[in-house]
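User: I've been trying to design a sequence by hand for this structure and keep getting stuck. Would you show me what you'd pick, starting by listing the structure so we're on the same page?

Assistant: Good idea, let's start from the same input. This is the structure you sent:
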Protein backbone atom coordinates (compact mmCIF):
# COMPACT_ATOMS: atom_id res chain seq x y z
CA UNK A 1 0.00 0.00 0.00
CA UNK A 2 1.38 3.39 -0.98
CA UNK A 3 1.46 5.99 1.86
CA UNK A 4 -0.98 8.84 1.54
CA UNK A 5 0.22 12.36 0.89
CA UNK A 6 -0.79 13.37 4.42
CA UNK A 7 1.20 10.50 5.97
CA UNK A 8 4.26 11.42 3.93
CA UNK A 9 3.99 15.01 5.09
CA UNK A 10 3.74 13.94 8.76
CA UNK A 11 6.81 11.70 8.51
CA UNK A 12 8.83 14.41 6.79
CA UNK A 13 7.81 16.95 9.44
CA UNK A 14 8.87 14.62 12.25
CA UNK A 15 12.25 14.02 10.63
CA UNK A 16 12.81 17.76 10.25
CA UNK A 17 11.77 18.42 13.84
CA UNK A 18 14.13 15.75 15.18
CA UNK A 19 16.97 17.20 13.13
CA UNK A 20 16.34 20.69 14.54
CA UNK A 21 16.11 19.39 18.09
CA UNK A 22 19.30 17.45 17.61
CA UNK A 23 21.09 20.58 16.43
CA UNK A 24 19.85 22.60 19.40
CA UNK A 25 20.97 19.99 21.88
CA UNK A 26 24.53 19.87 20.51
CA UNK A 27 26.98 21.65 22.84
CA UNK A 28 28.79 24.70 21.43
CA UNK A 29 32.33 24.27 20.24
CA UNK A 30 34.69 25.01 23.17
CA UNK A 31 36.86 28.07 22.77
CA UNK A 32 40.53 27.63 23.46
CA UNK A 33 42.77 30.23 25.15
CA UNK A 34 43.68 33.28 23.04
CA UNK A 35 46.69 32.76 20.83
CA UNK A 36 49.61 34.49 22.60
CA UNK A 37 51.32 34.87 19.22
CA UNK A 38 48.48 36.76 17.55
CA UNK A 39 49.30 40.21 16.24
CA UNK A 40 47.45 42.01 19.05
CA UNK A 41 49.48 40.13 21.66
CA UNK A 42 52.88 41.28 20.39
CA UNK A 43 54.89 43.64 22.57
CA UNK A 44 55.20 47.08 21.02
CA UNK A 45 56.54 50.42 22.16
CA UNK A 46 53.64 52.63 23.24
CA UNK A 47 55.07 55.54 21.24
CA UNK A 48 54.54 53.54 18.04
CA UNK A 49 50.80 53.51 18.75
CA UNK A 50 50.42 57.04 20.17
CA UNK A 51 53.39 59.38 20.26
CA UNK A 52 51.48 62.05 22.21
CA UNK A 53 51.56 60.04 25.45
CA UNK A 54 54.34 61.31 27.73
CA UNK A 55 56.86 58.62 28.72
CA UNK A 56 58.85 58.73 31.97
CA UNK A 57 60.16 55.24 32.70
CA UNK A 58 61.14 55.61 36.34
CA UNK A 59 62.71 52.18 36.70
CA UNK A 60 65.26 53.04 34.02
CA UNK A 61 66.59 55.69 36.43
CA UNK A 62 67.49 55.93 40.09
CA UNK A 63 64.48 58.21 40.62
CA UNK A 64 62.25 55.52 42.06
CA UNK A 65 61.37 54.02 45.43
CA UNK A 66 64.15 51.42 45.11
CA UNK A 67 66.80 54.10 44.55
CA UNK A 68 68.50 52.45 41.59
CA UNK A 69 67.87 51.63 37.91
CA UNK A 70 66.12 48.30 37.38
CA UNK A 71 65.76 48.51 33.60
CA UNK A 72 68.75 48.73 31.24
CA UNK A 73 66.86 50.97 28.78
CA UNK A 74 64.00 53.46 29.05
CA UNK A 75 61.60 51.55 26.82
CA UNK A 76 57.87 51.69 27.44
CA UNK A 77 56.11 48.67 25.94
CA UNK A 78 52.72 46.95 26.12
CA UNK A 79 50.81 44.26 24.27
CA UNK A 80 49.57 45.86 21.07
CA UNK A 81 45.88 45.51 21.97
CA UNK A 82 46.52 47.06 25.38
CA UNK A 83 48.47 49.94 23.83
CA UNK A 84 45.59 50.58 21.42
CA UNK A 85 43.17 50.63 24.34
CA UNK A 86 45.42 53.12 26.15
CA UNK A 87 45.53 55.32 23.05
CA UNK A 88 41.74 55.56 23.26
CA UNK A 89 42.11 56.86 26.82
CA UNK A 90 44.60 59.44 25.57
CA UNK A 91 42.19 60.58 22.86
CA UNK A 92 39.42 60.91 25.44
CA UNK A 93 41.61 63.01 27.76
CA UNK A 94 42.94 65.24 24.99
CA UNK A 95 39.39 66.38 24.41
CA UNK A 96 39.54 67.80 27.95
CA UNK A 97 42.94 69.44 27.48
CA UNK A 98 44.70 66.67 29.42
CA UNK A 99 46.88 63.67 28.68
CA UNK A 100 48.63 60.63 30.09
CA UNK A 101 52.15 60.17 31.43
CA UNK A 102 53.36 56.59 31.80
CA UNK A 103 55.72 55.70 34.64
CA UNK A 104 55.79 51.97 33.99
CA UNK A 105 54.27 49.45 31.59
CA UNK A 106 55.70 46.05 30.59
CA UNK A 107 58.13 44.80 33.22
CA UNK A 108 60.37 41.76 32.66
CA UNK A 109 59.86 39.00 35.24
CA UNK A 110 63.55 39.22 36.20
CA UNK A 111 62.98 42.84 37.28
CA UNK A 112 59.95 41.73 39.28
CA UNK A 113 62.12 39.26 41.19
CA UNK A 114 64.60 42.02 41.97
CA UNK A 115 61.82 44.27 43.27
CA UNK A 116 60.40 41.50 45.45
CA UNK A 117 63.80 40.82 46.96
CA UNK A 118 63.97 44.46 48.10
CA UNK A 119 60.29 44.97 49.00
CA UNK A 120 58.42 41.68 49.70
CA UNK A 121 55.10 43.40 50.40
CA UNK A 122 52.24 41.97 48.30
CA UNK A 123 50.16 45.13 48.79
CA UNK A 124 52.53 47.03 46.53
CA UNK A 125 54.84 44.52 44.80
CA UNK A 126 53.55 41.30 43.24
CA UNK A 127 55.22 38.08 44.30
CA UNK A 128 57.11 36.90 41.18
CA UNK A 129 55.91 33.34 41.87
CA UNK A 130 52.48 34.56 40.84
CA UNK A 131 53.64 37.43 38.70
CA UNK A 132 52.29 40.90 38.05
CA UNK A 133 50.06 42.10 35.22
CA UNK A 134 53.09 44.24 34.35
CA UNK A 135 54.97 40.99 33.64
CA UNK A 136 52.23 40.13 31.14
CA UNK A 137 52.56 43.45 29.33
CA UNK A 138 48.99 44.30 30.26
CA UNK A 139 49.27 46.88 33.06
CA UNK A 140 50.29 50.52 33.23
CA UNK A 141 51.25 53.01 35.93
CA UNK A 142 49.99 56.39 34.78
CA UNK A 143 49.22 59.93 35.88
CA UNK A 144 47.69 63.03 34.29
CA UNK A 145 49.46 65.92 32.57
CA UNK A 146 48.21 69.23 31.21
CA UNK A 147 48.53 70.45 27.62
CA UNK A 148 52.19 71.36 28.19
CA UNK A 149 53.06 67.97 29.69
CA UNK A 150 53.25 69.09 33.31
CA UNK A 151 51.96 66.64 35.89
CA UNK A 152 48.73 67.48 37.69
CA UNK A 153 48.64 67.27 41.48
CA UNK A 154 47.69 63.84 42.81
CA UNK A 155 47.29 62.44 46.35
CA UNK A 156 50.85 61.05 46.25
CA UNK A 157 53.81 60.64 43.97
CA UNK A 158 54.62 57.42 42.15
CA UNK A 159 55.23 54.28 44.24
CA UNK A 160 54.12 55.74 47.54
CA UNK A 161 53.91 52.60 49.67
CA UNK A 162 51.41 53.96 52.16
CA UNK A 163 47.66 54.19 52.70
CA UNK A 164 47.73 57.58 50.99
CA UNK A 165 48.10 55.78 47.65
CA UNK A 166 44.77 54.02 48.14
CA UNK A 167 41.90 55.00 45.84
CA UNK A 168 39.76 55.56 48.93
CA UNK A 169 42.15 57.98 50.66
CA UNK A 170 40.15 61.18 51.05
CA UNK A 171 42.48 63.39 53.11
CA UNK A 172 44.31 64.74 50.08
CA UNK A 173 43.56 68.18 48.65
CA UNK A 174 40.31 68.63 46.70
CA UNK A 175 42.29 69.14 43.47
CA UNK A 176 44.25 65.93 44.02
CA UNK A 177 41.09 63.92 44.69
CA UNK A 178 39.41 65.43 41.64
CA UNK A 179 42.37 64.65 39.38
CA UNK A 180 42.58 61.10 40.70
CA UNK A 181 38.92 60.64 39.79
CA UNK A 182 39.31 62.15 36.33
CA UNK A 183 42.12 59.69 35.61
CA UNK A 184 40.15 56.74 36.96
CA UNK A 185 37.03 57.67 35.02
CA UNK A 186 38.92 57.96 31.74
CA UNK A 187 40.71 54.64 32.23
CA UNK A 188 37.60 52.77 33.35
CA UNK A 189 35.62 54.15 30.41
CA UNK A 190 37.98 52.22 28.12
CA UNK A 191 37.81 49.02 30.17
CA UNK A 192 40.86 49.32 32.43
CA UNK A 193 40.60 48.10 36.02
CA UNK A 194 42.27 50.03 38.84
CA UNK A 195 44.31 48.50 41.66
CA UNK A 196 42.74 49.49 45.02
CA UNK A 197 46.05 50.20 46.78
CA UNK A 198 47.65 52.28 43.99
CA UNK A 199 45.76 55.11 42.31
CA UNK A 200 48.23 55.07 39.37
CA UNK A 201 47.99 51.35 38.52
CA UNK A 202 45.53 50.01 35.92
CA UNK A 203 45.15 46.55 34.40
CA UNK A 204 43.76 45.75 30.99
CA UNK A 205 40.52 43.74 31.38
CA UNK A 206 42.05 40.85 29.41
CA UNK A 207 45.36 40.90 31.29
CA UNK A 208 45.20 37.24 32.32
CA UNK A 209 44.89 36.19 28.67
CA UNK A 210 48.60 36.95 28.30
CA UNK A 211 51.36 34.75 29.75
CA UNK A 212 54.05 35.90 32.14
CA UNK A 213 57.19 36.72 30.18
CA UNK A 214 60.77 37.80 30.71
CA UNK A 215 61.51 39.37 27.34
CA UNK A 216 64.43 41.85 27.68
CA UNK A 217 63.29 45.43 27.13
CA UNK A 218 66.24 46.11 24.87
CA UNK A 219 65.08 43.38 22.46
CA UNK A 220 61.70 45.00 21.78
CA UNK A 221 61.68 46.58 18.34
CA UNK A 222 60.57 50.22 18.00
Amino acid sequence: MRPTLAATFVVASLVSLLAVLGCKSSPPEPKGPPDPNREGAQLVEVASIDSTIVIDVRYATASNVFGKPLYPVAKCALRRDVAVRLARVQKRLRGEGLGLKIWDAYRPLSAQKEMWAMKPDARYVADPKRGSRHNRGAAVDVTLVDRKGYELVMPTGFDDFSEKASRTWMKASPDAISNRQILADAMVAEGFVGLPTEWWHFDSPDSLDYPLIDVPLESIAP
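That's my pick for every position. To get oriented when you compare it with your attempt: Strands lie at 43-45, 54-55, 77-79, 99-104, 139-145, 193-195, 198-203. The CA atoms of residues 57 and 101 lie 9 Å apart.
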